[in-house]
Design the sequence.
């Protein structure tokens, strides 16, 4: 893994690689005594895994892709990371991301861009773009990502791999640098559903350090017993019509036909109430939470502090640190979030978005009633060219239309590759199929996804 990472440095997938720590850890595993039978409880023994750089690691820096945390090494491991280590995984490095997870192409990293291994002039997606590129280029067996509004699923789709976003709360958020706390989830990117499932379940579990973490892990473990004959699904009509590349919708429809031929029952296209309202509600809520979460980066507690004139006010130190170390996209979102939460606009923006969130959740619950899952693309397009959307934030946000509904509802969703489509210039790029399931139905989703592999 370390050789492959060095050989493909030009992809920009990693922000830190700790070769010494990784080798030492791997050596300890190799040299463990014959009588050590703990391997049975360690399903990831010796497996090289990369971790997105917004999850705290005590032996490697954790920057969240931001200059405001440059060279910061946390004093502890995130619970998800701790659980991976317990399962025997060897953490080889930290992957690149859009600053604080805010973006869809990885171009908002304060360090460098990531290139899509299928076509290096194209984006890998984001914000877990480094994790997706590292897995797609076979640099590591699996990588940890985080998904607030699509950041595991859309890069998995753009890079032709599997991306698993769990039910909100299945994996502890302790030690995840918060973007939008009510939406943030920790999940996995891998080259097969089996791998993604194994890594996800190794991370899962209730945690006293995260009050929103769930002790439902056993449910997630035990619901995989269904068969194809009892599997019923529908397609999300709104995600297959106008504004969606024809190659993308064709590939998704073909996957639905395959699932039907395997014995599942297809209810055709259904209308999911309020599906399209999820996008504006998501951006209002995510930005609001971000504006509050990011106030801790003030130069006093973590990372570099801007130098100000002797005798200058504390406020000017904050201003200088934040002004010079936070990126454009992050500032834009802090401003939008502060606006949405301000007294004159709270009812019209934030409160209304929360009401819409409830409607989106109800809409999805209704569409999932009596069904195993819903099928839809992960994104309306395949991976586009680097730089193509950087000047148009709204166009970039619009690309999240298909991933944010499951995020607002807290539901699990898995993305698997389902073919290739023309990117418009004859370049064939991967298409991702998204399956959304009921709360804690991870095993069930994995079962259906595996049938399509
Ligand atoms: N692209 C979305 C955003 O910019 C999703 C990001 C994420 O899931 N972290 O907010």
Sequence:
């Amino acid at each position: 893994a370390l050789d492959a990472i060095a050989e493909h440095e030009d992809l920009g997938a990693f922000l830190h690689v700790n070769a010494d720590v990784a080798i030492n850890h791997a050596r300890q595993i190799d040299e463990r005594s014959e009588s050590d039978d703990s391997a049975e409880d360690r399903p990831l023994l010796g497996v090289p895994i990369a971790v997105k750089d917004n999850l705290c690691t005590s032996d490697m820096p954790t920057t969240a892709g931001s200059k405001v945390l440059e060279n910061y090494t946390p004093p502890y491991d995130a619970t998800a990371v701790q659980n991976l280590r317990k399962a025997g995984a060897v953490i080889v490095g930290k992957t690149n991301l859009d600053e604080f997870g805010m973006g869809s192409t990885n171009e908002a990293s304060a360090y460098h861009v990531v290139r899509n291994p299928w076509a290096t002039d194209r984006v890998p997606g984001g914000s877990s773009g480094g994790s997706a590129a590292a897995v797609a280029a076979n640099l590591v067996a699996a990588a940890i990502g985080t998904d607030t509004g699509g950041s595991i699923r859309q890069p998995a789709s753009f890079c032709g791999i599997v991306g698993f976003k769990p039910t909100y709360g299945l994996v502890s958020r302790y030690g995840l640098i918060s973007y939008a706390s009510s939406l943030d989830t920790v999940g996995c990117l891998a080259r097969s559903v089996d791998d993604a499932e194994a890594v996800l379940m190794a991370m899962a579990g209730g945690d006293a350090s995260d009050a929103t973490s769930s002790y439902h892990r056993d449910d997630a473990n035990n619901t995989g017993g269904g068969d194809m004959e009892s599997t019923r699904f529908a397609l999300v009509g709104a995600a297959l019509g106008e504004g969606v590349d024809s190659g993308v919708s064709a590939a998704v429809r073909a996957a639905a036909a395959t699932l039907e031929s395997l014995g599942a029952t297809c209810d055709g296209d259904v209308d999911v109430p309020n599906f399209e309202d999820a996008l504006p509600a998501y951006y209002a809520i995510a930005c609001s939470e971000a504006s509050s979460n990011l106030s801790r980066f003030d130069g006093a507690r973590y990372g570099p502090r801007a130098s100000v004139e002797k005798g200058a006010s504390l406020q000017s130190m904050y201003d200088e640190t934040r002004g010079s170390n936070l990126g454009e996209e992050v500032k834009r979102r802090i401003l939008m979030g502060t606006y949405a939460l301000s007294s004159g606009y709270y009812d019209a923006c934030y409160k209304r978005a929360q009401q819409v969130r409830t409607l989106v959740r109800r809409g999805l619950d209704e569409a999932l009633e009596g069904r195993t899952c819903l099928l839809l693309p992960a994104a309306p397009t395949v991976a586009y060219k680097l730089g193509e959307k950087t000047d148009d934030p709204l166009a970039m946000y619009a690309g999240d239309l298909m991933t944010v509904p499951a995020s607002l509802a807290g539901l699990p969703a898995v993305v698997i590759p389902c073919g290739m489509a023309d990117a418009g210039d004859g370049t064939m790029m991967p298409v991702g199929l998204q399956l959304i399931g009921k709360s804690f139905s991870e095993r069930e989703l994995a079962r259906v996804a595996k049938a399509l592999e």
Remarks:
- The chain has one domain: 1-453.
- Residues 107 and 387 are 8 Å apart (CA to CA).
- The pocket of glutamine is lined by residues 101-104, 127, 147-151, 179, 286, 400 (CB under 6 Å).
- The two ends are 25 Å apart (CA to CA).
